[in-house]
Amino acid sequence: MVGPEIHFENVKKRFDSVTAVEAFSATFKAGQTTALVGPSGCGKSTVLRLIAGLTGPDEGTVRLGSEVPAQVARRGALAVAFQDPSLLPWRTVRSNIALGAELARKPSDHVDTLIELVGLGGFADHRPAELSGGMRQRAAIARSLVSQPEILLLDEPFGAVDAITRRRLNTDLPPLWRDRGTTVALVTHSVEEAVLLSDRVLVLSDRPASVLADIATAPGVPRDSAYRASDTFRELSDRIFEALETGAVG
Amino acid sequence: MIWFVRVLGICLFLVAWEFAARGVPGSVLIAGPSEIAEHIQSEFALYTRAAFATSVNAGLGFVFGNLAAIVLAVIMIVVPKSARLLSAFALLLFCIPLIASGPILRVLFGPGEGPQITLAALAVYYTTLLALLVGLRAVSQNWTDFMAVYGRHPLSTLRYVRARASLPYLFVGLQISAPASFLGAMIGEFTGAERGLGVLTLRAMRGLETEATWALAIISASIAMMAYALLGLLGRRLVGYTPVILLSAPQGQPTQNLWMRVAEMAFIVGAVLAIWQISMDVSGLNRFFAKRPGDVFVFLAESENLATVLSALSETLGSALPGYLAGLGLGAALAAALILAPSLGQVALPVAVALRAVPIITTAPLLVLAFGRGIVGTTVVVAVMIFFPTLVACGQGLRQTPGQIVELFRSYGASKWQTLIKAQLPAMLPAFFASARMAVPAALLAVTTVEWLATGQGLGMLMAMTASTSNYNMLWSCVAVIALAASAIYACVAMIERRILRVYASEQLS
After folding, report:
1. CA proximity to B135, closest of B239, B233, B252, B229
2. For residue B498, is it within any domain?
3. Averaged pLDDT for residues B171-189
4. Whether residues B279 and B236 fall in one domain
5. Could you say which of A73, A86, A90 has the minimum Cβ distance to residue B150?
6. Are residues B196 and B54 in contact, defined by beta-carbon separation less than 8 angstroms?
7. B58 compared with B262, residue with greater pLDDT
8. At B507, which helix (H) or strand (E)?
9. B278, B204: one domain
10. Rounded mean pLDDT of chain B?
């Protein structure tokens, strides 16, 4: 089942004296991965929070298909993975992952399959304190996938792991949501990661965030090491950097 | 090896104690270990019965008080809007010294165990509430967001995350409150019970029976310490670790608008008066002893009564002040000294943490015996009551100085003394002021208890007297006045705290 389209129509959001997002209109296409890149503090996370219904817009509308975020959340069709894995220290890896299904009121019968898929086989009965940072992040991603969400929100999910681990997670994990037709919104600081993982990249301006550029990456090209080494990859990265710099000057 | 040294130390201490007692024959001050042991043996059956009665009451109060604290904390977390008001009520109730609520409860309950159990509950609820709230709130925003993403209510966060995450904090609260429940039960017994260690203590004090006073202080302190140790052990077994927390009401940022603040305070005062009036009316207690706010107001409107109460209040506050200052000052000074001599600190701090738990009131009779029934005795009791919690809190505060800052000072070759003055003392200030606030009710409890038991001065004496003269208007007025005074002093200390921390630790206030 393909996840719904996410649609922002002229959205404005203020926090006290700071306008995080203004006149923001954008579409996250159904079943695709859309990356959000932009200067730090530009309101990327606010966009994710608006999709999750954690905060509501002051003006304009946010629609997930034909529904508002709260409706989708109540159906247990949303899931999220943060930069911080946020695992419960007193639960084992298995029961931390199962929590995602439990909270979404979905069956948890494929927890063990997922544990294998994210490469944590043999660690199911360990507690988070016994795992490395990269393993914890794998567990957190598995927890976000276990409820088979229609919409997946990734807020810098690989931001806190070291470069080598990050590279490995970048190849291992994305197939888990790409193949399923989940609509994914990914916030990242890394332009390369955006080009590698997404179908489209939205380049955001400094606060208040608006869309500076909407760049389609290489459709249908497998995301492997050949892609990473290709000219297309480099050109796409350059275009994004260029857009970011224009925004910074403007 | 370390055990051998400890046992040897204890033996040497006992021998020295025995010699000191024998060296002063016929002393009313010191009873030697052998005399005390002999005394306990001869009165064994009596003391066992009394200890059992007190322990049962303390245990029941412990259970009820902690249940109340848990319910209150959960309400404050699930309905955050209620938190401000509820914590103001909880603090106000905490500000009324137990020795003041004791006689009132005795009048309301009549004879029996009611007041002891209620006082034990009152003695514990606040510590547990504070500790538990810290634990329940120690949950990152990621987790509350996470629950909301799955469309779950705050109750789910409570069930899945907060409940388990707060357990170590709950155990800290329970551990510290165990000796306190014992203290509450004993104060309840001071106000006129039939049996219990408090009753025997009162009798021993009045009869100047030195051995009995010592024996009772030792028995009650040991039981309280045992409860403390047991709960600590249980906590470590069940949840694994003991978090370091400052047991003090959080200093909330007051509403900026002055009128809002006045309105909020007026609302709280009004609500307290209304609860007082309504609870008396509903329970249908006899107006002869169950006085209402109006009765107190009319009573205090007469200048003669007002003068009596106010002069007693000034006597009480006057004798509390030196001990309050001494306890705070010495506690903070020793904490700083222990930082300069870290190896000494490793030995002294665990001892202080344990001694903080001793219900000092149980040893108050001894201190009064030793230092006399005048201002010196009172000052010592008040200071000792405040000293240990202050020492522990300030020690924790000092050790929380960011390590990088201390290393920065070292890299410039700064002396220990300079580091202490310029980096560590400012870092200690929040802990110091938290202790200073919490010490206000503690000091008033100590001073009124000493007045009640020994010195025959101030509000403590006034309340003790009215219990026998049946001047219930006076009793209720005393309690109302002392609650008001305690809250006012607490607010003053809090104001000074805000002024100073605004400069030294602005992040603590945001």
Report:
1. B239
2. yes
3. 87
4. no
5. A73
6. yes
7. B58
8. helix B506-509
9. no
10. 82
Among B140, B149, B160, the residue with its CB nearest the CB of A52 is B149
Distance between CA atoms of residues B234 and B231, nearest Å: 5
Q: How far is A226 from chain B (nearest CA, A)?
A: 36
Residues B177 and B316 in one domain: no
Q: From the centroid of its chain, how far is CA B293?
A: 27
Q: What is the pLDDT of residue A173?
A: 84
Q: Last residue of a domain, which of B245, B263, B286? A: B245
Mean pLDDT across B66-83: 90
Count of residues in chain A: 250
Instruction: Please answer yes or no on whether A73 and B142 come within 8 Å at the CB atom.
Output: no
- Residues B233 and B185 placed together within one structural domain of the fold: yes
Does residue B488 lie in a domain region? Answer: yes
Residue B29: predicted pLDDT: 65
Q: Does B403 have pLDDT greater than 80?
A: no
Residues B209 and B285 in one domain: no
Structural domain ending residue among the three candidates B197, B230, B245? B245
Which residue range(s) make up the domain with B343? 274-510
Residues of B with Cβ-Cβ distance to A73 under 8 angstroms: 148-151
Q: What CATH number is given to the structural domain containing B508? A: 1.10.3720.10
Domain match, B320 and B452 both: yes
Length of chain B: 510
Ordered by where they begin, the domains of chain A are: 6-77+149-249 (3.40.50.300)
Higher pLDDT, A53 or B420: A53
Q: CA triplet A111, A115, A119: central angle to 5 degrees?
A: 165
Give me the residue from A53, A79, A90 closest to B164, CB to CB: A90
State how many domains chain B has.
2
Closest C-alpha to B357, from B507, B212, B236, B183: B183
pLDDT at B210: 79
User: pLDDT of B83-127, one tens digit each?
Assistant: 888 888 888 888 888 888 888 888 888 888 889 999 999 989 988
Tell me which of A45, A87, A90, A108 to substitute to probe the interface with B (most B C-beta atoms closer than 10 Å): A90
Domain assignment present for B6? no
Report CB contact under 8 Å: A88, B145.
no
B341 and B227 within one domain: no
Identify the pLDDT of residue A43.
Answer: 83
Prior bond to A57 cis, omega within 30? no
E strand map for chain A: 6-15, 18-28, 33-37, 59-64, 78-81, 151-155, 183-187, 200-204, 211-216
Q: What string of DSSP letters covers B77-98?
A: HHSGGGHHHHHHHHHHHHHS-H
Q: In whole angstroms, what is the distance from residue B150 CA to residue A49 CA?
A: 13
* pLDDT at residue B492 is higher than 60: yes
How confident is the model over B406-416, as a mean pLDDT?
78
Spans of chain A below 50 pLDDT: 250
Classify residue B259: in a domain, yes or no.
no
The H-assigned helical ranges of B96-209 are 98-109, 114-137, 141-149, 154-157, 163-165, 167-190, 197-206
Q: What is the pLDDT of residue B272?
A: 84
Q: Is the pLDDT of residue B452 over 90?
A: no
Mean pLDDT computed over B125-134:
88
The answer to whether residues B209 and B310 belong to one domain is no
Predicted local distance difference test score (pLDDT) of residue A79:
92
